Automatic annotation (TrEMBL):
This is tRNA-dihydrouridine(47) synthase [NAD(P)(+)]. CDD domains: DUS_like_FMN (cd02801). It comes from Malassezia sympodialis (strain ATCC 42132). It comes from the Eukaryota. Catalyzes the synthesis of dihydrouridine, a modified base found in the D-loop of most tRNAs. Specifically modifies U47 in cytoplasmic tRNAs. InterPro entries: Aldolase_TIM (IPR013785), DUS-like_FMN-bd (IPR035587), tRNA_hU_synthase_CS (IPR018517), Znf_CCCH (IPR000571).
Length: 734
């Protein structure tokens, strides 16, 4: 056994190779394509792939330094060759008739439609891990056989007898139809053969005698038994859908047109601005002892609305002197007795839903990769708390559909929240109100990002920039907490913006002065990004600072009848890559749990390892089934039409760009390993394990093709992070 070298994964010598090939070898039983235009075989293991010589002019030009991220990625949109009206695609008559700008020629659409994608039906239980060993092995064998089959070059087929029906594969399975008994993609579905019935030849063969819809000789099939079973399932969502947090009709339009009627946000932001102005007029000593900026906001909204009405009346050109006097009297009375006039019926912090998170497994908010299908995958392995991808507050209040899609929640996500990022209360408080009003029942918490290290966010004063402006952060937290009502507010932080650690000062104020419902701390500074080890000792110091502030508050509370304050849950984050890391950090720091980010990206089954306290030497075929699961979840989320398939393909490749970094346990000289240990080039215990470990984007696309069919010729995938950015494995939110 060789000596461990920090930074290098300890792989057994017999599995090491000289370099990564340009493309992995085919799976056992498959053949290399010999068609014209097929990819050339990869170089032998002991030879680096050949590179074309650069032109002389290009060789002389100074090259820009290659950094860790591909920031100018573009993804081509691939549509069907022939367009088809959405209503016709669903098997319905078009309401626009001849005035419709989309195609109604279903025969032409099917003639040019790409061939159906073969897809293996999932096991009856939905999870291969719950099957008996013999059934599990049989299913994984059939899955591997499908993967091998996908590697075979397509055989030359004779010209189809019926060109309209030539694209159909009646043996395939549509993930949406097999679960719900219907498919919203209809005729556009890339798995159409699973839910269509042939009743005759098409119009192309028998002319007017063709039956079926619009002369295709085919009919869409619906399965009433599956549909009824789906609607009768136990769920907190709508019976027809397994996703919640949809905007009501018209809300997005009113947000885009700036006509959304905010109820609380304008008043809250004005109160916070007045409070900040009053604090600015005090000396530092006076500000430290002043109640301004501390505790829950006490706002009488009716009084503020009455003042606004009186102010508007007094400013009219024809206003009488009595109107101005009435406004001045009301304003004077409000200033003199604001506390006494506060609305006692509003939701107070004590009435907020308390977060009971002790020992729960928290999947971090992950940019790009933390999508709903990936969260479903992690939930199947035992994750408990999920937070959606970071969204910008201004985009929510502008009604951007892409931002609102981030709050979508799968019905099986037990604890779910969304994360907001912004620089000012004027942005974040309105976003908090609209979230609480429109989707509040589907959110268990809202998180504020105070740790994003990205320059674009930091330079705007958002993300980790808030760490250097504690008073502004306090206004944001208190204002958002008021706007959210009973929905708890949490914050996610880093240790500081530079090497100087300052976040313990925020922990000393966050609960007692601002009323946060939970906190998460990433044990690195903004400057560190994801380099070096996370400082869990400092995380423990911040936990102590929070607990000390709560004890002091309970001892010095000015309200004798106030309930005793209980410390909110605190989660640590950074370098959790196995069950040993998890429990060691819990015991040494006193945190309530750990948020898991890169560990879940590299091996989503980490949640099972933690709950069962074991190292899982997962097989290559089980890992391939994870790919199948993600593809199935993606198709039911993004759709089974051409656009949905390629969106699923893109995000599946995003996931594979992280899971390929996993080094199988059976290849290691000893465990555990550190997350940032970079592996030398290696081969797996079988061809599939080697393929799943390949750092080549071509191989990731090849794996996706096994379940989503061959990628279109104009489709390509550029990874977000280059291979030399191993330490910065994910540009997360902080």
């Amino acid at each position: 056994m060789g000596e461990y070298q920090p930074g290098t994964a300890p792989i057994k010598p017999e599995f090491l190779r000289e370099s990564w090939p340009a493309r992995s070898e085919p799976l056992a039983g498959s053949a290399q394509s010999t068609e014209p235009g097929a990819e050339a075989p990869s170089a032998p293991d002991d030879e680096p792939p050949a590179e074309a010589p650069a032109p002389a002019a290009e060789a002389e030009r100074p090259r820009k330094r290659v950094r860790g991220q591909n920031k100018a990625r573009q993804f081509a949109r691939t549509d069907d060759i022939v367009s088809l009206c959405t209503q016709i695609a669903r098997g319905e008559p078009c309401a626009f008739g001849d005035q419709c700008k989309y195609g109604h020629d279903l025969c032409a659409y099917l003639t040019h439609k790409r061939r159906d994608i073969p897809f293996l039906a999932p096991p009856p239980t939905g999870s291969v891990r719950t099957l008996p060993p013999d059934e599990r092995d049989a299913y994984l064998d059939s899955l591997y056989a499908q993967a091998v089959q996908s590697e075979q070059p397509p055989a030359a087929a004779p010209p189809p007898a019926d060109p309209v029906q030539a694209s159909l594969d009646y043996s395939t399975e549509c993930p949406y139809f097999s679960e719900r008994g219907t498919c919203p993609a209809g005729w556009r579905c890339r798995f159409l053969g699973a839910h269509v019935r042939r009743v005759s030849a098409s119009h192309a063969c028998v002319g007017a005698e063709a039956q079926g819809m619009l002369g295709t000789g085919l009919e869409l099939v619906h399965d009433p038994a599956r549909a009824a079973a789906w609607r009768s399932r136990p769920t907190t969502a709508q019976p027809e859908n397994d996703e919640v947090n949809w905007l009501a009709p018209g809300v997005a339009k009113s947000l885009r047109s700036k006509k959304y009627a905010y109820d609380k946000a304008p008043i809250i932001t004005q109160v916070l601005a007045d409070e900040a102005q009053a604090l600015h007029a005090l000396s530092p000593a006076e500000a430290a002892t002043s109640p301004l900026g501390k505790g829950p906001l006490r706002i009488d909204y009716e009084q503020h609305r009455r003042l606004e009405r009186l102010k508007a009346a007094s400013m009219r050109p024809d206003a009488a002197e009595e109107a101005l006097e009435a406004y001045e009297d009301a304003l004077r009375n409000a200033r003199e007795g604001s506390d006494a006039a506060a609305d006692t019926a509003r939701v107070r912090p004590a009435e907020k839903r308390r977060l009971q998170w002790k020992g729960e497994l928290y999947l971090a908010p992950l940019t790009t990769t933390g999508n709903l299908p990936f969260r479903r995958l992690c939930a199947s392995f035992g994750s408990d708390i999920h937070c959606g991808e970071m969204g910008m507050a201004e985009s929510f209040t502008s009604g951007h559909a892409s931002e609102w899609s981030l709050v979508r929640r799968w019905e099986g996500e037990r604890i779910f929240g969304t994360q907001l990022c912004g620089a000012k209360p004027e942005f974040l408080v309105p976003a908090a109100e609209v979230l609480a009003r429109e989707v509040g029942t589907g959110l268990d918490f809202v998180d504020v990002n105070c740790g994003c290290p990205i320059d674009l966010v930091y330079n705007k004063g958002a993300g980790s920039a808030l760490l250097d402006h504690a008073n502004k952060l306090g206004r944001i937290v208190r204002g958002m907490s008021e706007a959210l009502g009973e929905v708890p507010l949490t914050i996610k932080l880093r240790t500081g913006t530079t090497a100087k650690q300052t976040t313990h000062k925020i922990f000393a104020r966050a609960q007692t002065e601002w009323g946060v419902g939970g906190m998460t701390l990433h044990g690195r500074s903004r400057k560190q990004r994801y380099k070096n080890d996370a400082d869990w000792a400092y995380i423990g110091q911040c936990v102590d600072a929070l607990h000390s502030s709560v004890r002091t508050w309970n001892e010095e509370s000015r309200w004798a009848d106030a309930p005793e304050m209980v410390p909110v849950p605190v989660y640590g984050n950074g370098d959790v890559y196995g069950w040993r890391d998890y429990y060691e950090h819990l015991e040494s720091t006193g945190v309530d749990g750990a948020m898991i980010a890169r560990g879940a990206l590299i091996k989503p089954w980490i949640f099972t390892e933690i709950k069962e306290r074991r190292d899982w030497d997962i097989s290559s075929r089980e890992r391939l089934d994870l790919v199948r699961q993600f593809a199935s979840y993606g198709l039911t989320h993004w759709g089974a039409d051409t656009q949905g398939v390629n969106t699923t393909r893109r995000f599946l490749c995003e996931m594979l760009s992280f899971t390929h970094r996993y080094v199988p346990l059976g290849l290691l000289e000893h465990v555990p390993v550190r997350m940032n240990d970079r592996p030398r080039p290696f081969r797996g215990r079988d061809a599939l394990e080697t393929l799943l470990s390949s750092p080549s984007a071509q191989d990731w696309t090849r794996i996706a093709d096994m379940f989503l069919g061959p990628a279109p010729s104009d489709w390509h995938f550029t990874p977000k992070h280059r291979s030399n950015a191993f330490d910065e494995a994910a540009e997360l939110q902080g």
